[in-house]
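Budget justification aside, the reviewers requested a transparent look at the raw inputs and outputs of the sequence design task funded under Objective 1. We therefore reproduce one unedited record. The lines immediately below are the C-alpha cells for a 360-residue chain.
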C-alpha cells in the first residue's frame, strides 16, 4: 500500500511538471502582431458651436405717435418688399398736410404779387427775395407734412418673414415703439469662435483667393442641405476667451434655417505628413494614452504618446513615437512592460487597408 501511494505521488508530480512545461512552451510560442506608424497627408473635421443669424434682421418701429388702426399681416408670415404691414390713424397728419398746403398757396400768391411789383420797380429786390424765401419755406412744410403722413403707412423694406407682433390694433403707439421684427432668410450668416492657435493654422494654410467650405450640423444632428463658405473673420480676438469670430454664409432656399438657431460648423482641416497609428494599439492610464513599443531586444516597453487628433479608427500622434518604432497592435492586455515576446511584423500600409481612412 505504501508503494502504491508513492507511485501515485510521483505520477501527480510528473503530470504537474509536464503541464507547466506545456504552458511555458505555449507562452513562448505565442506570436503578437506588430507594425509601425505611417505618415500620410490627411485631414480632420473640427466642429465649432455656432449661432445662426439672418442676413438682414431688423426691428420695425412706429415712426409717428398715434393709434394703430390696421394690421395687415400675421406672425410668421412671408411678406414682399413694399407690402403694407401696419397703418397708424392718419387724421392728425392729414390735417397738418392740408394746413401746410393752404399756407403754401398763400405764400405763392404773396410771392407772385411781390414779383409783379418788383418788375414795376414798386418794391425792392430784397422784398422779392423775402417773399421767395417764405414761399420756399411753405413748400418745405408741405413736403414735411407729406412725409409724416407717409409714416402712418408702414411697409416692408425687403422680402422677409415676420416675427412676433408686439402691438395690437387699437394700441396707442409712441414714436419709436416696436411693432415686430423682420428677417431676410434668403441667406444666413453663421458665426463661430475659433481658438488663436487654430486661427493661425487656418491663415497660414489657407490658399489665397480660395474660400474655405464648411458644413452646418443642425440641432437635430442632421447636416444642412447646403454648403457654406467662410467669408469674413473679425478684426480682433476676444481677450477673455482667446477666440476670434469667423462668419460663414449659407444659402437658405427652402427656408429651413431661422434667425437665432444654433448648431455646429464642421470644417475640414488638412494635416500634412501626419503620423497615424490604429486606435486599438493604445490604452489609457489616468487619462494619458500609452502604447507598447518593441525594442531591439524584442522586449515590450510602455511609452506615453500625445494624440493631436482623432480619425475613424486612427489617432494622429504628435509626440512619443517615430516612424521606425515597432508598436504592438494586438494582445495589449496579455503582456507587461519589460517582457520579451515573439511577434510577426506587418507593414503599416497593410494594416491601414483594413481600416476606414479618410484622406485627401
Amino acid at each position: 500500500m505504501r508503494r502504491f501511494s508513492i507511485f501515485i505521488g510521483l505520477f501527480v508530480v510528473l503530470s504537474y511538471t509536464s503541464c507547466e512545461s506545456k504552458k511555458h512552451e505555449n507562452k513562448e510560442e505565442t506570436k503578437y502582431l506588430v507594425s509601425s506608424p505611417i505618415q500620410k497627408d490627411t485631414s480632420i473635421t473640427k466642429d465649432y458651436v455656432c449661432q445662426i443669424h439672418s442676413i438682414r434682421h431688423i426691428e420695425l418701429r412706429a415712426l409717428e405717435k398715434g393709434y394703430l388702426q390696421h394690421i395687415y399681416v400675421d406672425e410668421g408670415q412671408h411678406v414682399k418688399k413694399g407690402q403694407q404691414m401696419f397703418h397708424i390713424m392718419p387724421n392728425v397728419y392729414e390735417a397738418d398736410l392740408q394746413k401746410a398746403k393752404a399756407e403754401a398757396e398763400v405764400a405763392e400768391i404773396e410771392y407772385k404779387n411781390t414779383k409783379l411789383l418788383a418788375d414795376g420797380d414798386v418794391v425792392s429786390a430784397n422784398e422779392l427775395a423775402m417773399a421767395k424765401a417764405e414761399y420756399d419755406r411753405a413748400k418745405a412744410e408741405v413736403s414735411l407734412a407729406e412725409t409724416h403722413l407717409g409714416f402712418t403707412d408702414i411697409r416692408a423694406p425687403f422680402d422677409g418673414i415676420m416675427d412676433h407682433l408686439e402691438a395690437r390694433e387699437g394700441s396707442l403707439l409712441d414714436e419709436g415703439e416696436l411693432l415686430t421684427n423682420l428677417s431676410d432668410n434668403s441667406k444666413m450668416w453663421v458665426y463661430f469662435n475659433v481658438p488663436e492657435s487654430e486661427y493661425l493654422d487656418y491663415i497660414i494654410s489657407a490658399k489665397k483667393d480660395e474660400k474655405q467650405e464648411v458644413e452646418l450640423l443642425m440641432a437635430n444632428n442632421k447636416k444642412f442641405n447646403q454648403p457654406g463658405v467662410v467669408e469674413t473673420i473679425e478684426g480682433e480676438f476676444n481677450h477673455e476667451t482667446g477666440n476670434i469670430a469667423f462668419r460663414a454664409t449659407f444659402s437658405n432656399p427652402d427656408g429651413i434655417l431661422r434667425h437665432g438657431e444654433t448648431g455646429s460648423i464642421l470644417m475640414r482641416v488638412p494635416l500634412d505628413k501626419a503620423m497615424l497609428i490604429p486606435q486599438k494599439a493604445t490604452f489609457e492610464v489616468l487619462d494619458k494614452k500609452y502604447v507598447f513599443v518593441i525594442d531591439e531586444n524584442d522586449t515590450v516597453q510602455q511609452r506615453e504618446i500625445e494624440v493631436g487628433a482623432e480619425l475613424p479608427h486612427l489617432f494622429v500622434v504628435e509626440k512619443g513615437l517615430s516612424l521606425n518604432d515597432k508598436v504592438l497592435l494586438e494582445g495589449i492586455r496579455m503582456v507587461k512592460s519589460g517582457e520579451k515576446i515573439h511577434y510577426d511584423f506587418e507593414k503599416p500600409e497593410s494594416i491601414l487597408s483594413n481600416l476606414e481612412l479618410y484622406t485627401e
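Helices lie at 2-29, 91-119, 125-150, 196-205, 348-352. Residues 1-14, 21-25 have pLDDT under 50 and may be disordered. Computational costs for records of this kind are itemized in the attached budget.
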